[in-house]
Amino acid sequence: MLTICQREPYPEAASGKPSLGQESGELESDASSVIQLSHSLGSQPFETRGQINVRSLKSGSVNIQQDSSYDWKDYKEAGEANEFYHLEAFVKYNGIERTFLTSTKACLLYESQLADIITIHVDLLGNIYGVSVATPHSQQCTGTVPEFEPNFNTTVLISYMEHGPVPDVAMYVQKVEQEKVAKERGETKDNRSFIAKYWMYIVPLVLVFMMSGASNPEQPAR
């Protein structure tokens, strides 16, 4: 069983923008956590797959212990039946317990010879808000695979939530203040069209003419 643990760079550190209440590229919390893994093929009941021990989300220190409870033929049959491989992750962190369910096509996992990618999704506070599973290649399920040992070749990734765009409030306030001062000085020009300026006077006149024309229709000539 080969396990590769990787850590994606902090988006804040890459952009040079610090997150809330912390230095650039730092999570607010870095508590250790345990992720219990169970898996299932198709509609079969879930069986224990192993667990991921997250020692540090900041450094990406992760240890995984796992074993497949299915034979390679089970994955082949599930793939031929176009069924899904389900992974259930029971997470314990900061005194909170959550369960996440993720799936991928069984044929993709079978053709990759049980090479999969488990991604741990972390928010800016250091909380785990999701766990997902995928295969290294999202190709279509085609061809046959020779017999192989049903041992997982897993890559564990830690994905950090990115900051959204921040509005330039200072620039907006400055613009509003400038418009307010210009209006008080009478420097603001009204660039609206004639109709846009005086529509409240034009509309009543048009209605009066229309009503007067309707009340006095022209008599037909004899």
Automatic annotation (TrEMBL):
Keywords: Endoplasmic reticulum, Membrane, Signal, Transmembrane, Transmembrane helix. The keyword Cell inner membrane does not apply. It is found in: Endoplasmic reticulum membrane. Residues 8-31 are annotated as: Disordered. This is ER membrane protein complex subunit 10. The gene is EOG090X0JXR. Belongs to the EMC10 family. It is a single-pass type I membrane protein. Signal peptide: none annotated.
